[in-house]
Amino acid sequence: MDSSLTISLISFFISFITILFTYLSFKRERRFENENEIFKLKIQVYNTFTIEIDKILLFYEDCLEKLNDHKKGLEILTEDELWKIGDDIDDEGDKLLMLFSRNQLLLSNETIAKIEKFCDDFIYQDPNLVVEITSLDKALDKMYEHADNLINELRKDLNIQSLNETLFKRINK
Questions:
Q1: Which of 108, 87, 101 lies closest to 42, judged by CA?
Q2: Which of 172, 150, 141 minimizes the C-alpha distance to 53?
Q3: What domains appear along the chain, each with residue ranges and CATH number?
């Protein structure tokens, strides 16, 4: 073999290896970019879920307070006002369900199951709960418990604990 052929073959192999590494690097970087984008979207969606859940809880508390005042005679609500409270509760629940529907692709199966349970248990309640204030009070306590479980599931899905530990280690170096 002459030297020009040997040099050409070596150049070819070096070029081939370079192209291979470049392609693999490109695929890896693209995957990282996609994962980072999905993670950012999940953080935004989960933050919005948390805010909506807090709004629903505060709204339920306000409704419960109005109903307690009505039962004690401090504030007299007409039947139409009582039905409006029930309709407003349904509207708040529908907002959460719409948010859930729009972002379902980003959610894990466990998170979807917890959100569905949350919605089933508290948004579509027995209409007689408007009259039975003690039941609403118990439902609100249960709702807080389920909301905490749901938020913990969201944190678990994002692996927040591990991310925090890694961040603290990096900062402490």
A1: 108
A2: 150
A3: 40-172 (1.20.120)
The pair of three-digit structure tokens given for residue 59, joined into one six-digit string: 């709204």
Which amino acid is present at 92? E
Alpha-carbon distance of 121 to 9, in angstroms, equals 71
Residue 106 is encoded by which pair of tokens?
Answer: 């980003």
Taking only the tens of pLDDT, the chain with its 173 residues reads 578 888 888 888 999 899 998 888 888 888 888 888 888 888 888 888 888 888 888 888 888 888 778 777 777 777 788 788 878 877 887 888 888 888 888 888 888 888 887 777 766 555 554 455 566 677 778 888 888 888 888 888 888 778 778 877 778 87
